[in-house]
Amino acid sequence: MVRGDSGDRSAAKGEEIGVASAPHLEPMREREKASLDLLSELIRADLERVNRLIVERMQSPVSLIPQLAGHIVAGGGKRLRPMLTLGAARLCGYCGGRHVALAAAVEFIHTATLLHDDVVDASDKRRGRDTANALWGDKPALLVGDFLFARAFELMVADGSLKVLQILSRASAIIAEGEVHQLLTTSDTATTQEAYLAVIEAKTAELFAAASRVGAVVAERPLEEEEALERFGRNLGIAFQLVDDMLDFRAERADLGKNIGDDFREGKMTLPVLLALARGDEEERAFWGRTIGELDQRPGDLERATLLVERHGALDETHSRARFYAQKAVEALAIFPEGALREALIEAAIFATERGF
Amino acid sequence: MVRGDSGDRSAAKGEEIGVASAPHLEPMREREKASLDLLSELIRADLERVNRLIVERMQSPVSLIPQLAGHIVAGGGKRLRPMLTLGAARLCGYCGGRHVALAAAVEFIHTATLLHDDVVDASDKRRGRDTANALWGDKPALLVGDFLFARAFELMVADGSLKVLQILSRASAIIAEGEVHQLLTTSDTATTQEAYLAVIEAKTAELFAAASRVGAVVAERPLEEEEALERFGRNLGIAFQLVDDMLDFRAERADLGKNIGDDFREGKMTLPVLLALARGDEEERAFWGRTIGELDQRPGDLERATLLVERHGALDETHSRARFYAQKAVEALAIFPEGALREALIEAAIFATERGF
User: Fold this and answer.
1) What is the pTM of this model?
2) Number of domains making up chain B
3) Among the partner residues B65, B144, B180, nearest to A144 by beta-carbon distance
4) What is the ipTM of this complex?
5) A281, B23, B206, B242: least CB-packed within 10 angstroms?
């Protein structure tokens, strides 16, 4: 049993939300056209300040640190997590400047976990570019990750809110727990859907939840709004990771994302694999046992795996579950007034599920 | 140029301290008999509470985390850093309980860096036992390090002092900088003594300094006492690391410490090597260039290296410099009243330089 201590906060349990008051996913725009543009537009000036602060705070007299950190920070990430902090703060009517440093702290935590993930997974590509560990080696990548994590805390301490520090230090511990849990499920073909959900909720959704919640905290809004934004971020994060796991089999162009098939090659027990395994016949189960369980992979195996997850509807079902969580994210925003910011956050949730990269 | 931003705090610069008022290293006990026993005795109950809290806070529903963390935490470490926090707090007359959680946080930060160090150095032994990465692999060791680092911050946040958080988050960033800087000097036979000192001050002495300073902070003592304890910890930390680097060539029994010759095998540019290199003839410089610079090592090389550092007096000089910093650590305590606690901290500084393991 994993993460039992926070089961009451689990998004997977389904909260009752008044359907009548819930904003709908549609029909503001067609789903396929959803993007982060509206949100980017509304928080443009804040996001530029975040980017400047990130560059400023990754400096160090040890020149390898800004070189390596600059590579990953400039690596074309979507800045989705800091955008959530900025957007949530504005949605709560916040007019101050604290959200900028906290959004930068959120991005530093995320960047540190990316650096460590790539070391752990021995990945050589991320978003179509060489990873830091591929360029500089595992050791600097690991240690610069530590540096950025410490810098994130320095930024939060400078902000001075113990409440924010509590949210983000707790999230950081849960992320690490999720990463270790994921290691334990890797190549374990007996992994349950419950365990898979616990992993992605911890390793991915926790930071989305914390990033969003912090927006309400700086705005000093009531607990109800904090919790609504936390629920928004958590469900959005689950949807985001489900889509990531689907795209590992389906991304149309490798240069838009990480390498296709990375998760498969690493033996990760993602939902598409879990579903295809459960629905496969004996021969297919042997295939998954060899390729994922024993990591004995041969030419053509990724293609066969892709065929199997498609044939069993595992990708479509993963996508449909992602939409379910995105819908829950959208519903969590019901308590906030209508307006451009709420619309932009809704569109971000749709984008998370409909993106092709 | 590295760490120039904190040059004014550098212990290497030598503060003027009135000799008349300075406590002397001797003659309380003979140097060879110096131990941590007196300090342990005085803070026994506190240290037991720290150990209980460490075990309590490394728990996680992901069972691999307490298993792996328990292995390294129970690995027979001296608990020197948390002892400094406890001892410093008591020296400042502190009667509350906050120092216990902060001492545990200090030990978690230290443990996280040990786990990451052993991954970076691919070490298989620490204090005579298998390392976590040797037993469980690099991935869990790296990720459990992240978990413990996050837990350290959770402990500090629960304590609630922004000042403590500032000291320890800054120290954490500087430690990571020092580790990256050390990577850059590894196998670089042009490394200067200044660069070496910057590395050990950052990677080791910074946490000793922060751990000691925190004792004065919880006791709410004037800045003068904070700074004195910081200076005590910083100089003690430098002495401690100098002795560590000396013992890599001289430890009498491998089962008391890490493997003898680890630093040499990894190409670390420690002071004994720097000194022997500077004093060696052309043939010896070629030897260091091959073994440390190119990491081309053959049977008998460690023995030859040990002979060279002995012959050139490099180990004795390293030891004598360690004693110089230990003396500065002792002098920093001059502003505190005489008594058992001050005596115990003085003896800890002597122990750091006279220990054989």
Assistant:
1) 0.91
2) 1
3) B180
4) 0.91
5) A281
